[in-house]
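Good morning C.,

I know you're traveling, so I'll keep this short. The sequence:
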Amino acid sequence: MRILVVEDEAAIAAAIAKALAGAGYVVDHADDGEDAWFRADTDEPDAMILDLGLPRLDGLSVLRRLRAGGSRLPVIVLTARGNWMERVEGIDAGADDYIPKPFQMEELLARLAGVLRRTGGHAASTISLGDLVLELRRRSVTIAGQPVDLSALEFRALRYLAHHRGRVVSQGELSSHVYETDREPDSNAVEVLVARLRRKIGAETIVTRRGQGYLLEG
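The tokens, ready to paste straight into the viewer:
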């Protein structure tokens, strides 16, 4: 899943990006509000981590523009500790959650996972599809209780399809949410990736809708 990190302090942005990448997310970065607004609109991330004190366009203005345009992008706001008014304004502007600075990366990861679960319609940190169970927090997969060995890329793809189960996901959409921005996958990379997944979790689990994409049925 692709996360847009909007933070103008380079050290903080790098630390967040490293933690997210280690947790299996694809990370994009913007260091000012105008770029953040543009990327949120064009790159279609799965969630945004948004600092409020940004150059060119402040974080609250970015959030208000997104919501005014009808965007339902999940947003976690980063605020200065003790500034309760900023937190209230952020929630009123449409933030899904907030974290005061300084913060622990484990808390950020947990809150991000929670926001993604809620927006995907999942109450718990597991997704069950019959005998197939994804443990999102531990990034593990089992079938009938037996562990399935997936690569990081395979898990990203399966997690994205599971979050959107019951909906056809096109090849382009799946590619943009599982591959790093600086990697240009081969034209058949997604087909190969899905084929590997099918060998590990069962050929019937992921349905191909010819000319449309892939469907993980709930």
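Safe travels,
E.
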